[in-house]
């Protein structure tokens, strides 16, 4: 007669394995539920005011973005003008704020006499009647230029802004004086760290309440130099963006935000945004708690892509509470305001 173990001993290991599996399954489901709830934006609602609008270069002339690269002369590609404003002028910034912008972005360059002027290009030929690099001219030289001289919507058949832009290249001091209580985003166009230092020298003269309305972005080196001097200023560079988001992807499911994401300006391409934990509004709220502003940009983050039309606006997440990058504040602000 064969020898057998008691039934309860035969069943013991199987029963234990089943119990372990049930516990593991329960833990897995619980963790999945935690991750889902902890990163669901339906728990982070809008205050009803709509997103903030960031006007790129003020209210500016637009152009076809297809094939545009960093060295493309976009003044030769503009659409038929619908308004009289030229980018990076005080008039264009005022028009943007009047149209409904909450934040205005502008570009800066440094002159031969170490003044910070508001202008996009390193070279003068594309937009103006001047030649050479901005850095090779004094402020007085630049004041005499026509910053609308070479804008053409029809490949040189006409130049509708010639004569209208004389003396309109402002200094950074003039821009901040013109809009003393408005939010401004400064684009440091150079890759030279000394220009980040120069910007820091100027910003250090401003009171804390004014600095709270300013942010800056640009090349890795000048922004690193600027941030080292002014750690409370919101800043952005490619290196900062990569460091912050890679670390956030690793831990963000817990609701934690890495310290490297504090006091930043994050420009998130819409193509990649859904892969961020808590996108959209939980992510926006978490970053805001760290003093960081989140701006959504159109497409995959290519050259200056913005939410510029009604079709673009419909792609925004429902109830989005962050900021929106636009090249056509005049078209987009009414869409936000009637929503």
UniProtKB/TrEMBL annotation:
GP-PDE domain residues: 51-336
GO BP terms, alphabetized: lipid metabolic process
- UniProt keyword list: Membrane, Transmembrane, Transmembrane helix
Q: Which organism is it from?
A: Micromonospora eburnea
Q: What is this protein called?
A: Glycerophosphoryl diester phosphodiesterase
Q: Which SUPFAM superfamilies did the record assign?
A: PLC-like phosphodiesterases
- What GO terms are given for molecular function? phosphoric diester hydrolase activity
Q: Which InterPro entries match?
A: GP_PDE_dom, PLC-like_Pdiesterase_TIM-brl
Top-level division of the source organism's lineage: Bacteria
- For this protein, the parts annotated as crossing the membrane are 20-37
């Amino acid at each position: 007669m064969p020898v057998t173990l008691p039934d309860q001993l035969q069943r013991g290991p199987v029963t234990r394995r089943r119990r372990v599996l049930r516990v593991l399954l329960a833990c897995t489901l619980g963790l999945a539920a935690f991750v889902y709830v902890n990163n669901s934006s339906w728990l982070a609602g809008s205050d009803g005011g709509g997103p903030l609008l960031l006007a790129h270069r003020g209210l500016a002339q637009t152009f076809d973005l297809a094939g545009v690269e960093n060295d493309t002369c976009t003044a030769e590609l503009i659409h038929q003008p619908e308004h009289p404003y030229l980018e990076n002028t005080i008039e264009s910034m005022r028009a943007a704020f009047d149209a409904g912008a909450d934040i205005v972005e502008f570009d800066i360059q440094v002159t031969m006499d170490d003044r910070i002027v508001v202008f996009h290009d390193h070279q003068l030929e594309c937009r103006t009647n001047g030649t050479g690099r901005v850095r090779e001219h004094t402020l007085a030289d630049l004041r005499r230029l026509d910053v609308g001289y070479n804008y053409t919507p029809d490949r040189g058949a006409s130049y509708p802004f010639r004569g209208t832009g004389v003396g309109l290249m402002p200094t950074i001091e003039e821009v901040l004086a013109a809009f003393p209580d408005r939010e401004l985003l400064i684009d440091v166009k150079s890759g030279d760290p000394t220009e980040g230092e120069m910007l820091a020298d100027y910003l250090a003269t401003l009171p804390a309440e004014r600095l709270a309305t300013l942010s800056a972005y640009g090349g890795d080196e000048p922004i690193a130099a600027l941030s080292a001097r002014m750690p409370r200023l919101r800043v952005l560079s490619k290196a900062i963006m990569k460091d912050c988001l890679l670390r956030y992807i690793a831990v963000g499911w817990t609701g934690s935000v890495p310290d490297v994401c504090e006091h930043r300006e994050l420009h998130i391409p819409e193509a990649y945004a859904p892969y961020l934990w808590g996108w959209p509004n939980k992510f926006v709220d978490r970053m805001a708690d760290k003093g960081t502003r989140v701006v959504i940009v159109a497409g995959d983050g290519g050259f200056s892509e913005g939410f510029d039309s009604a079709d673009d606006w419909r792609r925004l997440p429902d109830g989005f509470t962050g900021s929106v990058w636009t090249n056509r504040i005049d078209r987009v602000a009414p869409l936000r305001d009637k929503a």
